[in-house]
Amino acid sequence: MIRFIFILISVFIVGFFIVKDTWMVTVQGFGYELKASILVFVVGACLVLYLLHLLKKPFGWWERCHRWLEKRNQNQKEAYLLLALKTMLDKNTVATQQIIKQKNKFFPKKSDENYVIEALFDPNTHVFEHLLHRESTELAGIRGLLHYAKAEGNLTEATRLLNKATEKYPNEPWIYHELWKVQILQNDWHEALNTLEKLKKDNQVNKPEYIRYKALLLLKLGRIKDAHKLCPTDQAIILAYARTEPDKAEKLIRNLWALAPCQEAFDIYWQALSAYKPDKQSKAVDKLVRENPKHKLSLLVLAQTAIHQKSWPMAKDYLTDYLSLYPLTAQVAKMMADVEQKGWNHTDEAQKWRLKALDAPAELGWECAVCGHQTESWALVCPVCHAFAEMVGE
After folding, report:
1. Are 201 and 211 a contacting pair, CB within 8 Å?
2. Which of 96, 131, 171, 356 is the most buried (most CB within 10 A)?
3. pTM of the entire structure?
4. 3-state secondary structure string, 92-132?
5. pLDDT tens digit sequence for 295-321
6. What is the DSSP string of 144-204?
């Protein structure tokens, strides 16, 4: 490289002093005049280009140093975040406080990252408000404030936050899921139905769930026939439809009994049989039981039928068989008390069964499949865990 520069300089000097006038050119400008050979101009241009090339190297070293520093800082941030996550998972309160104090060393105090880390380790409404008012962390702020609004039962605020989120972030699927849940909790069935259609359009709910959820919402809107037409196998829908269609009640309940027997179904069935004579009632109940003979309620409804018809020995036999297979419940204990009292006037025995009924577990008719909470009547949303469409008739 040094030799090449020496040769260029030598050529420049030789060209400047030796080349004849015929190879000389004159350049004028800005009041100056430069007279030199063409060779000098060529070699000079080469020298200038080469010097420009040399000048790039210092800047290149600066860029490399800058990239190295950035990579080093990034590695430090990643190491800090990994340590922070490990501390959080270990639930080490003292170490967590120390980690939070060090965050300003790695992230500017008012940076998005700083607020996000604070929200991660010390979540509170104040932090999420800060996130809400920053463009890049607004969605995280909405989600955090939504959590607090739902925990406090402030469904109005939850709806406001979700409506704001749908306007600015229409492609976030979780927003519509949360909006749908809040609308359900507010008993806003019309809006819940519209949101469900949006979820279906965006493929956020599968077809079987969509059909069942829509049918249940139609049921809450009083459109029982439409609900049954859409989903004819749902337990709650069948029961509601059987109440409104007495002529079809027997067939509907028999179909339901084959799938999911429940006490309320038999109550509706017995009401449909109320105009029948005892022998026809017995035949109809036997027909019902044959749909699902191994279910415990099938044995119980035989006992209930015998009690309705005042066939006390038969009722006691059925109840005795039931107790040999299944644990005692308050309902069965009360039935045994009625049989002893009304059938044979055994007051002492009846009183023993009434006392047992006080300690026996009650069967309220409907139970949440998620949390186990029992209620006397069906509800679309569990009043305890707020699970949707999880109440099952027992």
Report:
1. no
2. 131
3. 0.69
4. CHHHHHHHHHCHHHHCCCCCHHHHHHHHHHCCCHHHHHHHH
5. 989 989 999 999 999 999 999 999 999
6. HHHHHHHHTT-HHHHHHHHHHHHHH-TT-HHHHHHHHHHHHHTT-HHHHHHHHHHHHHTT-
